Amino acid sequence: MSTAFRWVEQARSGRARAGHLHTAHGTVPTPTFMPVGTVGTVKAMTMDAVRSTGAGIVLGNTYHLMLRPGAERVRALGGLHRFMDWPGPILTDSGGFQVMSLGPLRKLDQDGVTFSSHIDGSKHRLTPERSTDIQHALDATITMCFDECPALPAAPEVIAQSMRMSMRWAARCREAFVQRPGYAQYGIIQGGTEAELRAESVRALTGIGFEGYAIGGLAVGEGQELMFSTLDATTPLIPWDSPRYLMGVGTPDDLLGSVERGVDMFDCVMPTRAGRTARAYTERGTLNLRNARHAVDLRPISPHCDCLACTRHSRAYLHHLFRANEILGPMLLTWHNLAYYQRLMRGIRSAIVEGSLDAHAAWLRAQWAMEDWTPDEMPPPDIPPVP
Amino acid sequence: MSTAFRWVEQARSGRARAGHLHTAHGTVPTPTFMPVGTVGTVKAMTMDAVRSTGAGIVLGNTYHLMLRPGAERVRALGGLHRFMDWPGPILTDSGGFQVMSLGPLRKLDQDGVTFSSHIDGSKHRLTPERSTDIQHALDATITMCFDECPALPAAPEVIAQSMRMSMRWAARCREAFVQRPGYAQYGIIQGGTEAELRAESVRALTGIGFEGYAIGGLAVGEGQELMFSTLDATTPLIPWDSPRYLMGVGTPDDLLGSVERGVDMFDCVMPTRAGRTARAYTERGTLNLRNARHAVDLRPISPHCDCLACTRHSRAYLHHLFRANEILGPMLLTWHNLAYYQRLMRGIRSAIVEGSLDAHAAWLRAQWAMEDWTPDEMPPPDIPPVP
Q1: Exposure winner among A121, A331, A370, B349, fewest CB in 10 A?
Q2: Residue B317 DSSP SS3
Q3: Is the pLDDT of residue B72 over 60?
Q4: What is the reported pLDDT for A386?
Q5: Does B117 lie in the same domain as B175?
Q6: What is the pLDDT of residue B386?
Q7: Which residues on A lie below 8 Å from B326 (Cβ)?
């Protein structure tokens, strides 16, 4: 078994691809959704529960982990895999996005960013080199480049200037990256919603050469239409044999449309965050389990789900747990939502492999488009969503 | 298989007893510790996790369940077993203790108690009959009598008056109880720390006749010595072939001493509450995992524990989770603490069966008495605590 990091295409349908991502920590079928494990835990989940949903790779946050418990401490404790009991692949973001979100708490210069911790106000500095070193200390399977991006909308000159600085930083990140078999570093394509700038960014990154390419600076308020048109302009420029990761996206509908546009990897806090706020994803859209109409409903959240919540408990029980502010509510519903996201991705992947993506996508969208659906109407799926 | 409710002695050591509690919902080896599932969930635990610790019976709270989601609603949803996914035996308290704890929010009369909900201030009334009916609606395997007890210390006249009212209520509870094969109702012995009053209470209850007897009104601030002396005066008076349940107790040391005095069943929030506040039970006493000395400690909480926290994670990881206020901290530590309590009870039970209770008790106490122990010094146990 080779431990080289690579993505191998298995099937294609239009621009959508099904493949396998081979890493030092195991192989992941793509397209894949990465649950977010911000500070070394996927919130409210044991790692056994994460595994049971079918997740193949999880995400960790450099910004949060460098502040607590600290990158050197994680290294001393055997790395993030051992720390959080996830021997599979881990992708760590670079901290760039979180630091930019700090607003007045951070100061940007050409060399990097100085910022104050949101936890205790302590001063910290991230540079392309430091971010890369931290991710090495965490033993990230996939290291992300440290980048900078302005909030949208922004003037094209601002976006261009920012993108070009991120490209200079990307070269420094590559310099600092310790190449090892089965490990990877992804460059992050910036350029806002400007097709020309995106193309320039792809050229800069492919000129440096990375194991994979991420599309950053989207899902920041520009709307789905602009996000999709930016993907339309960008993904065809990325080397076809490299994995493509759309950062921080998104809704089930976002995922489907992005896979159709050639994206292989996703992460998003939606399913986990929704799980803590009583919002359940189903084949027919979302349910708010705090709603009184669930109080005496003996049915599971979804008849198509094999998660612990759906196989053992009623909507009424979940409703009760959230009304009573019991920890088990977020535990069960996070589990359910992650199971839904993984089932969605498996369904899309199977459809690509079987050559039926268009039909599957049409079926998914028809389900989502049903208005005023009642749970009674949720039928056995025409196209089984669980392969 | 008979479905009669009964307790059958298997072995005896002094006044300590090992036996089996046969119920409509399964058989439980005794002595047994019942995890507290206040409002239809053992906080921060899935029922699979509760099962994995070896728990055989859990407790639910009438007061909390009648307020939310409501007893009739639980009945409509198939009963508490189905609602919370615990097909095994469930004991429900009567609501008496919680209502008495409300202080100025409740008004006591000879017929019952009127009180205001701590959730929304709504007015409610509990009587012996209503409490018994509610527990029937919940489908409790073991129903407790509705009683009243003053906080200790109190004047003997006050205790006597209160106890006698509880005995009159006990007769009304028995009248209201629907007897079914494999289901039970326990009378609650009151009388504070007055041996004579306890004896009078036992006579009153055995005169009515219950499937089991609970010792109430202890562990309310009187201290271990008075609790043990009260047990010494009380348990010999209880019919030997009935199960005996000491309510709301306690520390590992309390449990051991009470088993030695003839108690078979216990419940207490200590292991679950401690699990949410970073306190870990071990063979050598408790650890506070928020303490900085655990920050880089790669060892498990206990080398003798087979819970998920100990088999997969370091103290450093648990420390990190509590420092970061992550839900997984309470999840893992509640699991660990319940596993410890069940292991403790299995060890005590095995020692009774094997005729080695004195040696086992001496070993347990020697471990607990070690001061300034460091985790390094935790040896392989001389007497294996896990049978």
Answers
A1: A121
A2: helix
A3: yes
A4: 42
A5: yes
A6: 42
A7: 39, 41, 43
Region B45-49: mean pLDDT is 98
Tally of domains in chain A: 2
CB of B313 less than 8 A from some CB of A: yes
Spatial separation of the C-alpha atoms in residues A237 and A232, rounded to whole Å: 10
Point out the domain boundary residue: A268, A290, A320.
A268
Residue B95 in marked binding region? yes
Identify the pLDDT of residue A374.
57
B102 and B37 belong to one structural domain: yes
By 3-state DSSP, what share of chain B in percent is helix, strand and coil, each rounded to 5? 45, 20, 40
Residues B302 and B185 in one domain: no
Mean pLDDT score, A171-185: 98
Burial B93-128 (b: 16+ CB within 10 A, else e): bbbbbbbbeeeeebeeeeebbbbeeeeeeeebebbb
Does residue A371 carry a pLDDT above 80? no
pLDDT, position A242:
98
Q: Chain A, 43-72: which have a CB under 8 Å from a chain B CB? A: 43-48, 68-69
Query: What is the per-residue pLDDT for A378?
Result: 56
Question: What is the Cα–Cα distance from A356 to A22, expressed in whole angstroms?
Answer: 25
Residues of B in contact with A69 (CB under 8 A): 295, 316, 320, 323
Percent of chain B topping pLDDT 90: 87
* A chain contacts of residue B40, beta-carbon cutoff 8 Å: 317, 320-321, 324
pLDDT score, position B373: 54
Would you state the torsion angle of the CA atoms of residues A282, A283, A284, A287, taken in this order, to the nearest 10 degrees? 0
Residue A184: beta bridge partners? A142
Whole-number pLDDT of residue A377: 53
Each residue's pLDDT tens digit, B97-121: 888 888 888 999 999 999 999 999 9
Question: For the ranges A98-112, B62-76, B161-175, B336-350, which has the lowest average pLDDT?
Answer: A98-112
- The CATH number assigned to the domain holding A137 equals 3.20.20.105
**CA closest to A276 among chain B residues:** B327
Structural domain that includes position A339: 277-368
The answer to whether residues B61 and B152 belong to one domain is yes
In three-state form (DSSP H/G/I as H, E/B as E, the rest C), the secondary structure along A48-98 is HHHHHCCCCCEEECHHHHHHCCCHHHHHHCCCHHHHHCCCCCEEECCCHHH
Question: Which residue in the set A47, A68, A328 is minimally distant from B46, CB to CB?
Answer: A328
**How distant is the Cα of A126 from the closest Cα of chain B, in angstroms?**
21
Residue B203 falls inside a structural domain? yes
